[in-house]
Amino acid sequence: MSKETDAAYDVMLQIAKQYHGEKGRWAYEAFGYINATYFNDQLPIPLIQWAITPHGGCLGHTQAAKSVVTLHPSLLGGTEKKAPWGIDPALLGYCYAFDVLLHECMHIGVEHVLGGYDGPTSHNNEQWVGEVNRIAPLLGLRGIEAGASKSGRVVVDGEFTKTGKPATRVQRVSTGNVPFDVVSKFPQKTREFVNDLSFYRNDVLPFAWPS
């Protein structure tokens, strides 16, 4: 990082430590690793805060244009719900939060490094899909080919037209080799799809913590 970027990072780190304590410091150390490892230090330094996301329904939320990331505190566990967001509470912790922060950093990268997305949603566009395909092998998630979600005709099992041809219906289909849910919720859903949750179960971060 440049001297100016280093200075901005230090300021944001101090603010995060003051308002969020240990998890505030963790968020910026995790960001520093993510930025260097997956984005060649090209991301702007975001404001990372721990707070209830809109309606509490999101693991994380990003205002990409402003580089503001909000992480839900329950990512670290301690929630009163038996299965928050449909996730086994045993999987929650700093490793799960790392993947969520990486996801949010990808949104910042699309906005500030790639010039924004061109598509119907922030996940259903060629820029996001390209980033998933770029980063997946760096996480050891090989064999994943992300694709966009598009309307297409699919065969309805066991149904036929009056002429005897297989009946079809229009539905959303992924142009890749994985369901689009795996693409839009990368990398958490991707680890689940390949049936490898060891990153969460082993609870070992890819960078030294505490430093």
Q: How would you characterize the overall build of this protein?
A:
The chain has 211 residues and is an alpha+beta fold. The chain has one domain. 39% of the residues lie in helices and 16% in strands. The chain has six helices and five strands, in the order H-E-E-E-H-H-E-E-H-H-H. The strands form two sheets. The chain has a three-stranded mixed beta sheet. Strand 2 and strand 3 form a beta hairpin. The longest helix has 37 residues. The chain starts with a helix and ends in a 9-residue tail after the last helix.
Condensed summary:
This protein has one domain. Helices cover 39% and strands 16% of the residues. The chain has 6 helices and 5 strands.
**Please, how many helices?**
6
| Overall pLDDT level | 91
Q: Order of helices and strands, N to C?
A: HEEEHHEEHHH
Q: Biggest β-sheet, characterized?
A: 3 strands, mixed
Count of discrete domains: 1
Structural class: alpha+beta
- What overall geometry do the principal axes of the alpha carbons give? globular
Identify the quaternary structure here.
single chain
Low-pLDDT ranges? none
Per DSSP E runs of 2 or more residues, the count of β-strands stands at: 5
Cα-based radius of gyration, to the nearest Å: 19 Å
- What percentage of the residues does DSSP assign to strands (E)? 15-25%
Strand order of the largest sheet: 1-3-2
- Tell me roughly what share of residues is in helical segments: 25-40%
The N- to C-terminal Cα distance equals 19 Å
